[in-house]
Amino acid sequence: MRWDIFCQIVDNYGDAGVCWRLARSLTSLHGQEVRIFCDDLPTLNLLASGVDPEIKRRINIQPWEASHNNSRHPVETPDVVIEAFGCDLPNRYLAGLLIAPKKPIIINLEYLSAEPWIADFHGKPSPQAHGIPKYFFFPGFQENAGGLLIDPAPADSLACSATVPESLETHWKLLRPNSKRISVFCYPGAPLLKWLEDLGRLGEDFDIVLAHGQLQQLQFSSSRPKQEITLPKSIQLISIPFVSQDEYDWVLSQCDFNIVRGEDSFVRAQLAGKPFIWHIYPQEDRAHEVKLAAFLDLYLGEAPQELKHAVIAAMTWAMPAEWYQSIAGWRDHSKAWHADLQKKQADGGLAARLVAFVA
Length: 359
What we know:
alpha/beta, translation elongation factor activity, protein biosynthesis, Rossmann fold, elongation factor, six-stranded parallel beta sheet, five-stranded parallel beta sheet, protein-arginine rhamnosyltransferase activity, single chain, Protein-arginine rhamnosyltransferase
């Protein structure tokens, strides 16, 4: 089938990351024909760098404006149009669909959520005045939701390799032999500097792998002259360059603890099987707090009470001294959660469920 994916980037990397991972899953694993129309091609192309050229060749990446001039012959109208995260289709593109002899199915692909109510709306029709069939598709952890975007599976990806990616060789040589590794990718609102200062008092050595832009974010949050950062000697900051999606997956797999944000890195942190903090995208109406609580209800459903308290404290940015004593139990829980995810997504997860739903 032919698929057109429309992606308007709100959260910089996250939205593009989901759309790109979905596109490569549909093409490489399910033999679909995919175009992406994106309003931020530089970000999308950065995430797509380093991918097998054969996989990338199968995906037709176009600027958002190119959708206004549909180059396909009318008989090649897409079978499926995806409005990623509820973005509106360009008017001229929609007008082209209305006069096409064959109407596609439009999928409103929503954000991932663990909230129970999504199962009641997943797969339901959304009647439109123009008459083209449109449906809600809710990614989720529940078996009766849209699933998770698990491709490529960790067993098939760079994440299993012990070989350091070329782009990270220089930075990885800075790691100390007996230190714990923590990757950091969070929003500006996090109390990261204070968090690192507290971490440095725990009596262990930590190497902090900062994603692209995090060092500048830290410096900006510093109240010291010339934006200097002063941390205990047990803390070493290592700032890495912008890396491709697969290389970032590898970083998550190589760290002992991960701080992530957005939807794509949130799922990949769980698939890495390590403890993590999800810095969920903050919303003015505080809806993010409800979403975080819903996920923690699922994530900690079988956990002992002490671990529940520790993880909830960590996820809400309590200082490490308040919860780090539970890290061993959290590691075991992360491995068990990862195994359970793999079992529940054995059907192929989001991409496979989308193909089956459309068929």
